[in-house]
Design goal:
Oligomer: single chain
Shape: elongated
Number of strands: 10
CATH architecture of the largest domain: 3-Layer(aba) Sandwich
CATH topology of the largest domain: Rossmann fold
CATH class of the largest domain: Alpha Beta
Radius of gyration: 24 Å
Length: 365
Amino acid sequence: MLAGISRYIETHGPWSTFLELRAFESSIPPWLENWDGDGIISRTYSARMAKAIAAADVPTIEVRSTNYNQGWPFVGMDNALIGETVAEHFLSRGYRRFAAYTLDNEAFFRERVRNFVTSVESAGASCALLPAHGESSPSDWEKQQARLIQWLEGLPKPIGIFAANDQLAVHLLDACRRAGIVVPEEVAVVGCENEKTLCEFASPTLTSVQFDGEAVGYRAAELLDQMMNGEDIGATETLIPPKGIEARGSSDEFVLEDPIVLRAVKLIRAEAFSGITVGEICERLGISRSTLERRMKQSLSRGTKEELLRVRFREVNRLLRNTDLTIEAIGESAGFSHAHYLQTAFRERYGITPGEYRKKNRTRF
């Protein structure tokens, strides 16, 4: 949002701007009462704060929520469209069973989920709901995860689950891992807000709805400019569509109905990094290599060895982005027996060396 505001000012300014980054729960800033400014763009988080801003009696644009609106124009994300977008993501991958992990403390969370449910019901499906509970201590967290595991184990599978935000989605993925539920083959998860640090932290990485915060900021600055120039634009709502869904590991597959393929995929997820081979997978499943290969290609459009390599390379890429481990250590962690083979195979697969990939994609904290 700040980038969008900045872009507007560069073109239509100059403005003198006072920027204060504050926690939502913080008290009303003492300077607000006697502030001699011309306009405010606010993410208002309480009725008391809204009244204090209104008392400043200057043009104001709200960019967080309409919960405490004092008749100000609002610019924000189109949460109805977000719910529809997630439903389409799952439906296009063949999912016919759905659930949502919900938050009820904000209208925009409720709207996201409500329109997700409406969209899947329009496609002839139903949607199970689980409201999230807050956790303020490690013991609360453990109770919450135990509750989440129990819910997940009782859901029919394969299933697509929409989490009201990325933090809840990360909790879902942790619960799946604890319960031995394979993601995304049994449970696919999509979050919302595309908070990159959280999405990349998750295992597997989290698919999420990508907001267009820059468009929100630009439009908010544009409307504020109009109001500061004397235009009466009323309590309008400008809703910005999401930029789409950034697909990552938590939902990058199609539905798997073949039980043999599902068992093979579970084995690969559990033991790919321990160096399991195609031959060992076939032996564990009691099936011939040719039969497994045929069924894997029918379900996944790739063979068993390619699936093994895909899972291993996904881990290699994650470690290259997020750690300082050597190539040798990364290869060992991801199930490659020889670093030289990893180097060669990586270049053949991506057209660059692991070092070049790391330099280009390194996550900065």
